[in-house]
Model the fold of this input.
Amino acid sequence: MKRYNSQEATLIGGFTCFGKTLFMNTFYLDTETTGLHPATDELVEIAVVDDAGNIVLDTLLRPAESTAWPDAQRIHGISPDDVAMAPTREDVLPELLALVTGARLVIYNADFDLGFLPEVATAADQVSCCMLDFAEHIGDWNDYRWHKLDSAANYVGFHWPGSKHRAAADALACRAVWQYLRRQDDQP
Done:
């Protein structure tokens, strides 16, 4: 598991308060799960990337209850054997909360991931859903359509550093989409 080092965090995205520009850290989070339902499914992987593209947290997670997840495993490739010796969500949660407290957190499908990590929404200063911004950018806002992360990443020219549907690669893809959208916002 990679650990967060606050001295390595990149400060970006300033805002003004009393005439001074202040900065907050921006992080990108992604998870992999045993299924689609936070009430019955669990996390099996989490990754957080900073705005410079450094992976500051990347770990498998051992579910507390789930013992098999064949449908999800076919998508992300994470098996029960892979997570047998991994830390649990509760083991990693204090570190994750310390990392995102007061930060801007960008998540591709924020409602989905926050369903598994509601504490993160409270700790972060700001949570942004990259998928909603992407839908608005390409003109599907009024007739809202879900766009898969790999489609959005391909649209912005992202080159996958690893397997799609793994938390670190997906967090990096989310970062690429978010930064592309911010560059578009800056153009006249």
Q: What stands out?
A: The helical segments are 70-76, 80-83, 89-100, 110-116, 118-123, 130-137, 149-155, 167-186.
